[in-house]
Design brief:
11 strands; 10 helices; Phosphoribosyl-aminoimidazole Synthetase, Chain A, domain 2; 314 residues; 60s Ribosomal Protein L30, Chain: A; five-stranded mixed β-sheet; globular; alpha+beta
């Protein structure tokens, strides 16, 4: 267990009277007999989650998008958001760009900004998002079943490549670099709400800390293991050309979804995903046991898997 989750479990995870509290992508409280309210919050801090030269319009988009992803991971639909922002100074140009990005994201995903708080201090952005989900369609981390297919939405690893471009750890053509940095700064969560209305999936989580790290939460919560095949990962051609699959396996900030579903649903999932123009890729399967196995592009098991991003790295 990472220090982040040790802190949560030791100091903040207490018994509650709500249907689902701490421990998943969102908490659930009763809305009515048929639906839950799904509520989540994410914080972005300067120099940890973004740099001072991140374009404010992209930061405004990302601040909301990372929360939208949490609601989709619960099988829900985002509805409302509250913004709390701390700023070290008043900057009209920055605020204009940030608000443009925020409202553009809100428009795309059908979210209303309904309140929050503004204070002075080190730059930090927190958004609380409120969504709704039908009780029969809820997705949680503890419901994966042996022999389930493992699916991933969109492409993965691109944001991590973008981060290394920003940090000047890798060099490439400017056009390609711009593409990767855009994936980092402007994530595009995949709306699987219409697919889950068919009750096709068993469990889900969004990818914020990396595929392996976040899949491991599903495996631990469900008491199962998995096999993942690198040659099936939905990656950019650059990743394949450079055999840089570690970005897809361990890189964070994708804000795509990992989902598990019964193998019998595979054809229906592929058909509906095509109809809804949602990119979904089957990357492996849920298995018995406790050890996650990841196979490289030659079918050889990888040793010493990394943990992905750690908020409190010892």
């Amino acid at each position: 267990m990472t220090l982040e989750f040790e802190i949560i479990n030791r100091y903040f995870k207490k018994n509650t009277n709500v249907p689902l509290g701490i421990g998943d992508d969102a908490a659930l409280i009763n809305k009515n007999k048929r639906e839950f309210w799904a509520i989540s919050q994410d914080t972005l801090n300067n120099d940890t989650h973004f740099s001072s030269d991140t374009p404010p319009v992209e930061l405004g988009w990302k601040a909301l998008a990372v929360n939208v992803s949490d609601i989709y991971a619960m099988g829900g639909k985002p509805n409302y958001a509250l913004l709390s922002i701390s700023l070290n100074q008043h900057n009209e140009k920055w605020l204009k760009g940030f608000s443009q990005g925020l409202h553009a994201c809100a428009k795309k995903y059908g979210v209303e900004i309904i309140g929050g708080d503004t204070t002075r201090g080190a730059t930090s952005i927190s958004i609380t998002i409120i969504g709704s989900v039908f009780k029969k369609n809820v997705l949680k981390r503890d419901a994966a079943k042996v022999e389930d297919d493992i699916w991933v939405t969109g492409k993965i690893g691109l944001a991590a490549i973008g981060l290394d471009c920003v940090k000047k750890k890798i060099a490439m053509k400017e056009g390609l670099k711009k593409t990767f940095i855009e994936y980092l700064n402007k994530p595009q969560p995949s709306n699987i709400y219409s697919l889950q209305a068919k009750k096709l999936f068993h469990s889900a989580i969004d990818i914020s800390d990396g595929l392996i790290a976040d899949l491991s939460h599903i495996l631990k919560s469900s008491g199962v293991s998995a096999e993942i095949f690198s040659n099936q990962l939905p990656v950019h051609p650059w990743t394949k050309k450079n055999e840089a699959y570690h970005y897809a396996l361990y890189g964070g900030d994708d804000y795509q979804l990992i989902l598990t579903a019964a193998q019998k649903n595979r054809s229906q999932i592929e058909l509906l995903a095509k109809q809804e123009k949602i990119k979904l890729t089957c990357i492996g399967k849920i298995t018995n046991g406790k050890k996650l196995k990841v196979f490289d592009t030659h079918g050889i098991p990888l040793k010493n898997l990394n943990k992905g991003f750690l908020h409190f790295d010892k």
